[in-house]
From TrEMBL:
One of its GO terms (molecular function) is methionine gamma-lyase activity. It comes from Amycolatopsis magusensis. It is an enzyme of class 4 (lyase). Its EC number is 4.4.1.11. SUPFAM superfamilies: PLP-dependent transferases. CDD domains: CGS_like. Belongs to the trans-sulfuration enzymes family. The lineage of its organism: Bacteria, Bacillati, Actinomycetota, Actinomycetes, Pseudonocardiales. This is Methionine-gamma-lyase. Coiled coil: none annotated.
Amino acid sequence: MHTDRKPATRAVHVTAPPLTDSRPLSVPIYQASTFAFDDPDALATALGAPDQGFTYSRYRNPTTQALEETLADLEGGVAAAATASGMGAISSILLGELGSGDHVIAQNCLYGGTYAILRDLSARFGVEVTYVPGDDPAEVAAARRPNTRLLYLETIANPVTKVGDLPAFLAAGKAAGLVTVVDNTFASPILCRPIEHGADVVLHSATKYLGGHSDVTGGVLVFAEEERYRRAWQHTMELGAAADPFAAWLIIRGIQTLPLRMERHCANAGLLADRLAGHPAVASVRWPGRADHPDHEVASRFLAGYGGMLAFDLRGGREAGRRFAKGVRLAKLAASLGGVETTLMHPASTSHRQFDAEALRAAGIGEGTIRVSVGIEDADDLWADLAQALDGN
Ligand SMILES: *Cc1c(COP(=O)(O)O)cnc(C)c1O
């Protein structure tokens, strides 16, 4: 203790005890924006690279790095960059990889925020985008232009659980010399690891299954090559998109039970999909694990499970959808997905309320379509809730 110093000084300089014979079993939250050095040369070196020590948490942080290393490992990549949200990951990679006048090929069933940024990049920076149906890998060669740079895909796409032939699309992207980016949010690395199929970059909204508890917003980019990671690290740092250590810590905590949760999400979704399909108020059910799903065969080739997302169409259309959404008690009407609790959306009365029937159809949604993020509750309790809401219809 420096008892010669005054209280105002001693109060400020609080230090953590050094650890000697033991260390924490869990990853501590390094809730620090800044790190102190003894040597100016070490500080200078650390400022310039993603792997030379900790200086400032927008560049790098030990808690965040624990998340990045875990995700890189689970996805089979060489490195990862954790971001403040899924959109932080998407914006960082698109702004980092694309220049004005570049052309992007993207599947036409995409997360809404991804559409929005592609539209902005087109309007403001002349980035050209061609949307392809995602049914046939030959679409990639057909859409390719001399300025095409990037192919953007989703493993399982919203809201109708579309599954394209990811390995074949990635091979087509590679053959066309494109950077391939896959949003793997719905599958998680437990069901699919796109880098094993040739993807250059995999990204997640960690807000969904990785975090898994509807209590954190985050994202992550995982890279197949060191070189691309280093460039992206520079961009995430400049954009200020880095994850906060506390958010990273919550996501690490979520990931520890991800394999168990995914197993239950998939099992519950399968059970509910089958029961929904047998209910007279339901016209059709879409879950990739069902033989009547248009992509069932393709999905079976590369997914280790069919996920916790399902959609179904009520015969009664928009009004029936509204009544159903109001009628559920255990399942919650909520915009997000991938949490331990079951949530659902009726797009025609919420996210897509301005769409008429034809515009909805073009987006692959019916007036009575309900999208469900199936949680890990007891499956019979879930079915009882959905059944009472259906019977009220
Ligand atoms: C939610 C979501 C995003 C965006 O993630 P945020 O964490 O909300 O920024 C991107 N892609 C998919 C598939 C999503 O579901």
